Amino acid sequence: MTAAPVVFVIDDDASVRSSLKLLIGTIGLRVETFAAPDDFLRKQPLDSPSCLILDVRLPRLNGLDFQRELAMRKIRVPIIFITGYGDIPMSVRAMKDGAVEFLTKPFRDQDLLDAVHAAIERDRARREQEQEVKGIQDRFENLSSREREVTYLVVEGLLNKQIADQLGTAENTVKVHRSRAMTKMQANSVADLVKMVQKLKDTPK
Amino acid sequence: MSDEMAAAGELEPRVAQRTAQLARANEDLQREIASRKRAEEDLRSSEERHRVIVEAASDAIVAMDDSGIILFANPATTSLFGYDSAEMVGKPLTMLMPEPMRELHDDGFRRYLATGIRHINWHGTELTAISRDGQEFPVEVSFGELSADGHRLFTGFIRDIRQRKQAEQLEAAAQLQGAVHADVTLAFGLEGSLETILHECAESMVRRLDAAFARIWILNWDAQLLELRASAGLYTHLDGAHARIPMGTLKIGAIAKEKTPVLCNDLLNDPRISDKAWAEKEGMAGFAGYPLLIGARTLGVLAMFSRKPITTQTIEVLASIADLIAQGIERKRAEDELRATERRLKEMETELARVVRVTSMGELAASIAHEVNQPLTAVVNNGNACLRLLANRKLEPDTLRLALEEIVADGTRATSILSKIRALITKQAAEKTSLDVNEVIQEVLALAGREIQAHEVLLNHQLEARLPLVLGDRIQLQQVVLNLIMNGIEAMTTLADRPRSILVKSQLIPSNWIQVAVCDSGTGFSCEPEHLFSPFYTTKEHGMGMGLSISRSLIESHGGRLQAVPLSPHGAEFSFTLPVAPEAGL
């Protein structure tokens, strides 16, 4: 999370690559350029927030197809497409498949730099979210089975007494489990705990 | 008395004896007479029988003596030769022979009488006879000889074989005709050129019809010249004096023009034969020439010279093979034409593939856009980067130099790409010829036929007849028309509620312009018509937006205009004008 963001560029044209490197460098971002998708794939996985500037027209491979290949490989890097020509259906497809932007060459520098910022932000947010869910998961796995049972019932909105009845145990015991679970999960409130469990449920295992 | 008595007594037995002798003699005589009578009767009845046979015989039977004088002639002789029996008896047998044979017969007959050597076969020899009215006819003659009372008698049996001969001739003619027909049919089955085929036909005439030489001329309709295409026999060359004969000149040209055969068995006296010295020197006796006709159309002439008079039989064969050869030539031409059309169609399809590639500009235009955009993008990026650095006071001289070097290099690169494209376009604008616009349209329709059918499009055309010519590049105009038609087809692919139809029109409009329009019943367009012609404007999913833009520049390079009009209630009309070619407009 602390690693500096990187902008990747895949374009078969050396001039375009080098000019993009200079342009994006002016906003203080690290730029790595590749002439072909395979070179880029060899760089993965990468820990820092990043985005990919991808030429639609690549030798041997269409940029749109490469976008799908990345999705299949679960490489979730945000993509900014740049293209020598583009039609509406092509850009619709790219955006539907999750592209951040679709720019026609030559583009306004501000449009590209805005898109780069947005993409990196999106990636950073995604990474943070993933990080957070991972933390919750880790902490949840530290709970004992009785603490997890109590946590689920708390999240469902049951009172301590009701939980005790349901589990066939004393209300005081429930209180102890509940307080331990809250501490282990680093939840400041019941509402906090509910949110965490919800996030766990939302995340596909 | 006793002596008398004795004598009387003696006499009686003698008389009796004598009487008995006489009676026996008489009996013998009677027997003899009876026998003779019987023999006589036998003879008479035998003669009678022979007479009946001879008189009833259908063959002529003539008897003559050893001086060749007719002694007897049966009725069949009369009916065959037309002479009464009285007119023949006492005359020489040679009266029944044509003049040239008489001496031959006399000589042969004399030699036979002297030496016993026969100058002809006596049992069935075919000779020519002559009747009272001077008509010659074929007969088969047999002779028999017998000697009586020291005289030698001869009998001739003469059979009329006209019918048999005629039947034989008919059969021979049929066989000959069959053989020549087979040769000609076989020749036309050959894979070779028309020359090869015709040469085989001429060879067959030489081989089977006894032609000294045979030739075939084919009419070159445009030049009205008969061109010698086959020659067999004495002459086999195809050049020389008779290689190209104008219609109507010489006998060959006359045959072709009059469409009637020329036959001649008296070359030296025929006014139609121009080179009599040659005919005499070469010993030519007969000429036959036939026009090769299909209906009333002359395709050529078939002719032969012969050193013998040309027989009726040969003439009949010639007449029938002239027909056969004419039909063969006609069929061969049709086949060749079909093959040429197929080849041309194939070439056009290949050309179409190229036209479609270039016109729709799919890959090529994408390439151009990409190629030009790359350096431009780099230039813009580098420029922007420097401006940003400059604004932040972070622009290092090294960075600036690097960026500027790249800008110069990319600018140069963009220029060279553009000049390459320009070169490509000027190279294509090569050939302008006088064209019939309708022909161009028809060619495109033929090419696009499959596409039109595949999209279930109804095609109509209203092409004004006899349009003046325009000066243009056939391929480029085809590209434009094809592009408009393909656009029309594509504008209708999604139509379900109304028929898909394309109408192609051509007409002469004031003043001296030819207008071609392609109308479709498709989705039409809602934007400004002019917008359609801007480069890279497209409404198609896979379009490049180059077709109309290129089409417009092609039409403008022809001095015309290309425009679009939306049609009501639906569809669009794209039309272009072309100026009438200067010389055609006069």
Main features:
heterodimer; A: 205 residues; alpha/beta; Rossmann fold; Arc Repressor Mutant, subunit A; 2 domains; 5-stranded parallel beta sheet; two-stranded antiparallel sheet; 7 strands; 58% helix; B: 586 residues; alpha+beta; Beta-Lactamase; 5 domains; 6-stranded antiparallel beta sheet; 5-stranded antiparallel beta sheet; rod-shaped
Description:
By secondary structure, chain A is an alpha/beta fold. In chain A, 58% of the residues lie in helices and 14% in strands. Chain A has helices spanning 14-25, 37-43, 63-72, 88-96, 109-142, 145-155, 160-167, 171-184, 190-202; strands at residues 6-10, 30-34, 50-55, 57-58, 61-62, 79-83, 101-104. In chain A, helix 6 crosses helix 8 (171-184) and helix 7 (160-167) crosses helix 8 (171-184). The longest helix of chain A is centred in the middle third of the chain and has 34 residues, at 109-142. In chain B, strand 4 and strand 5 (151-160) form a beta hairpin. Chain B has 5 domains: 1-56; 57-160, Beta-Lactamase; 197-337, Beta-Lactamase (2-Layer Sandwich), CATH 3.30.450.40; 361-428, Helix Hairpins (Orthogonal Bundle), CATH 1.10.287; 433-585, Heat Shock Protein 90, CATH 3.30.565.10. By secondary structure, chain B is of the alpha+beta class. Helices cover 52% and strands 21% of the residues of chain B. The interface between A and B is medium-sized, with 21 and 33 residues.
Structural class of chain A: alpha/beta
Give the number of helices of chain B: 15
In total, how many domains does the architecture of chain B comprise? 5
If you average the pLDDT of chain A, what whole number results?
A: 88
Q: How do the SSEs of chain A run, as a string of H and E?
A: EHEHEEEHEHEHHHHH
SS-based structural class of chain B? alpha+beta
Backbone shape of chain B: rod-shaped
As laid out across the biggest beta sheet of chain B, the strand order is 8-7-6-11-10-9
Q: The CATH topology of the largest domain in chain A, please? A: Rossmann fold
CATH class of the largest domain in chain A: Alpha Beta
The gross shape of chain A turns out to be elongated
What's the number of extended β-strand segments of chain A?
Answer: 7
Describe the main β-sheet of chain A briefly: 5 strands, parallel
User: Largest sheet of chain B, if any?
Assistant: 6 strands, antiparallel
Roughly what fraction of the amino acids of chain B lie in strands?
15-25%
Q: Using CB atoms under 8 Å apart, which protein chain pair has the greatest interface?
A: A-B, 21 and 33 residues
CATH architecture of the largest domain in chain B: 2-Layer Sandwich
Question: Could you name the CATH class of the largest domain in chain B?
Answer: Alpha Beta
- How many distinct helices of chain A? 9
Q: Spatial order of the strands in the main sheet of chain A? A: 2-1-3-6-7
CATH homologous superfamily identity of the largest domain in chain A: Response regulator
